[in-house]
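retry 2 of 3: previous attempt timed out while embedding guanosine-5'-triphosphate. Reduced batch size to 1 and resubmitted. Inputs unchanged:
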Amino acid sequence: MRDYASTEIRNVAVVGHGASGKTTLVDALAFVSGSSKRHGSIKDGTALTDFSPEEIERKYSINLGCAYAEWMDTKINLIDAPGYADFHGDAISALAAADGALVVIGASAGVEVGTETMFHEAVTRKDPVLFVVSMLDKEHASFDRTYESIKSRLTNKVIPVEVPIGEGASFRGILNLFSKKAHLYKKGTKAGEYDEAEIPADQKPTFDKYYQELIETIASTDDAMLERYLEGQEIARDEAIAAMKEGMKKGELFPLFCVSAEQTYGTRALLTKIVELMPSAFEMEELHALTGAEGDKTVEIHAKDDAPFSALVFKTQSEPHVGDVSCFRIMSGVVVNGAEVFNATRNATEKLGHLAVAQGKERTEVNKLHAGDIGCVAKLKNTHTNDTLSTKEHPVRLPAPVLPEPLVQFAVHATNRNDEEKVQAGLHRLHDEDPTFEMHYNQETHETIVSGLGERHLEVNMAKLKRKFGVTAELTKPQIAYRETIKGKGEGQGRHKKQSGGRGQFGDCWVRFAPLPRGEGYVFDDQIVGGAIPGKFIPAVDRGIQEAAVRGVLAGYPMVDFKVECFDGSYHSVDSNEMSFKMAGILAFKAVASKCKPVLLEPLDELEISTPGQFLGDVMGDISARRGQILGSDTIADTGRTVVRAVIPQAELHLYATDLSSMTHGHAGFTRKFRGYEEMPGEAAQKIIAEASKKTDEVLAEA
Ligand SMILES: Nc1nc2c(ncn2[C@@H]2O[C@H](COP(=O)(O)OP(=O)(O)OP(=O)(O)O)[C@@H](O)[C@H]2O)c(=O)[nH]1
Ligand SMILES: [Mg+2]
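retry 2 succeeded.
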């Protein structure tokens, strides 16, 4: 491959709802341009950017994928983003690596939730957006309906630059409004070849209508142009394109194109427009990065070759037999094959051996890459997704894209107990690749918890674990870390006495229990006067009580938030020792705690749920059904959405993300954070207590 300078590079993220045809489009664009040798397909498992076994098996994208199309002396880097919400993290990373977005919309489905999400992400990032109506050959395809759905649900600044001739089975061409020509396709077209023709007579009214709309819209972006247009002057193609590009940059215009990627119809015109309308990598807006490992200063980063090298690693992926493959976007400077670079995020030096560009899973070695380009490299030792590569002389850290928080949790257990360590190591590696997949150990329930963006996300990661690291693990509903406390006061004795020949054991203590406010833990108060218990044995009483409290008195959960006063006792000058007083403490706990109105505490989370108004009733009703308490709600005027704040017991939140999504057809979102512990209401608590005693009985029966 030849060298491409920053001005000759376009970086485009291909985003949209699940199954809208993104991967098929990326494959077709790379193939039609001649940069990829084979026209792959999802059905055959040969699509360029869906090459992992997990993707081939499931027939949807899981990881972002990199490809390129060389067209009009330009290298178009295409980053294929997954569409399903479970893999939203990679879609954000794709946008972070690109300078513009193709938002793909299936012509039968129209705008869907994922289209809205990704369009808003792109607009928020101030990326120029180009809409692509895909699958126009499919049954029930409708250009008009799709166009209307964009206007009503996304933006009324959308403007068609192409209009299809025919739809569904009769889709056979496009009206190219800029060139004022028709592109006519023949059945069996292999690589987007078409006959250019005058606008067919039966299409003339359609053409006239959309042409007028296009030119008026473009002209109205500039007063001088509008004046000339109103005077009846022609707006030249180049001028119109330049104005449209400018309008896109400002977020005032969103052009719309038409394709059937499977048949390669419309792909050549789209490639041309990507080159003409998307900003070059050189036009990248300046970025602000932190310098040095400590990040003490901010610097401006420009896509210039003569600046120090800096690059954002937007994806790492480990592959058996290959090692880690890292994809990076160069933000400034050039990089040569074999260069030594510095990872300031982790304070590690890395060597870029076999510097390459990726066409799906194929990597082609290159000598040099310029500012703004996208490259990849294998076998970096310490570099993970979202790290910055730079140089030792000019270490910088680029702002990492903000990825969504994982909200779905499962406990994970190695299928084979001996594999526990390998499972842990594998899960860590999966997190390094995908920061939206997390793991932690819950000390209270002794379980490893994995969290992700959805059930499908976690299930796919278990499949990756098996294939990449050769171990299997199962996901189960996580145990809830209940606790116990007391609501009443009480006092009593713990007396341990044992006489078994030789030297005996003797310890005796009197204690008072009282509840403490939530979150205060445990307090031990030594009130012994006159040496009723010798000072050296008192800590043993405390330890005994703490040891017994770990197992509670109701259902085996740790008892918290209570105070113990040790106010009396007795000892034996020969038989008393620490062990005996610890036993006395244990006995005292058992005797007293159960008399002090013990209750179960449960962990609660605070949620902020954002939902469109029409689902509010269902969302609220569901919160009550989950024993939740609504704290308040706010309606956001310009979006018509309501944000509900509620406190819900963790025990009722397993799979909430899935349930909320099906309740609102994917339109609602939420955040969740730990709120604290509260007393569990009677009926629910009784169930947990009954379950615990059943478990104890089973253990006893087995013994
Ligand atoms: N008829 C027709 N089918 C298409 C076309 N493009 C894609 N498809 C089919 O639509 C399905 C989804 O296509 P993909 O390319 O995987 O869609 P995607 O947007 O990448 O999906 P995710 O990665 O899961 O978000 C596949 O079965 C494709 O074969 C098209 O132009 N015409
Ligand atoms: Mg895909």
